[in-house]
Predict the structure.
Amino acid sequence: MRLAAATPPEERGLARDEVRLLTVSPAALTHARFRDLPRFLESGDLLVVNTSATVAAAIDGERAGGRPVAVHVSAQLDDGSWLVELRPPAGRSGRVTDAAAGERIALPAGVCLTLLRRYPDESGTRMWASSAPVEGGLHAFLARHGRPVRYSYVPHAWPLAVYQTVFATHPGSAEMPSAARPFTPELVTRLVTAGVVIAPITLHAGVASLEAGEPPLPERFTVPGHTARLVTLTRAAGRRVVAVGTSSVRALESAAAADGTIRAAGGWTGLVLGPDRPARVVTGLITGWHDREASHLALLAAVAGPELVRAAYQEAESAGYLWHEFGDSCLLLPPLAPPAVP
């Protein structure tokens, strides 16, 4: 039975790094706490973390006739338009299905949002490219008038700080890159002193409320040159490249060539990992527990293999692990191939 985490662990009497951790390898399924992570990594392993910070991406709006609506801002596109999803008012589930191009939605401070076109094309049923001229830019407007995106399984509002990870430095994610939430400064210190290397990428996560079967939307990412070099050195030494979250996997694999080499890269990525595109550089994954929609499980299986992922989910469900962004964690450690001989 799946159990949604309705509150942050701090409200349940736990420190961030005291959430449960299921470590899954071909040899064993091990139950621990997240603060035990150094037990399962070795000196020379590389943790790749997402430095994207969560923004207050949900705004209250009003449709014609005074109908309330929640506007979730997923990203800002290159032409300056806002990529948005329309949802029922806060606290209610479902989605808005009767919107049309040209519709105008009143936002706070007299701002008017106009729906321009469906995204990514006319076959889309959920996302809209829209215009909303605001002074000071989108992020400043969201900081003044927005709130964190939340869904019906989280009944109470929480401040934005609750949705930030210890690595958050570059604002841009509509929803928290939640796999890194259990990290604390103390745990990072213990990992580094144990010889585990930590390197950054940035991927701004969009709204994650897509229907089952819908592919993930393109997202903006950056893989710095020094991170690419560390990945190359780690793989050459036969150590693990462990991505913290599916966002880190997507960024790293978007920078990887077919032969497994990786270079600095950035821009928008529409990469979808799965049976036809397995992971090329990522050899381990820290993730939360999320609904088994197709694209999410396909990405996990692209890193760890379907059998390991299936075993992880079966064990987590039977052991009562908590789901979603405030829930428990999983460390997937598939078999590590020996380094290639030059």
Remarks:
- Residues 106 and 195 are 53 Å apart (CA to CA).
- The two ends are 48 Å apart (CA to CA).
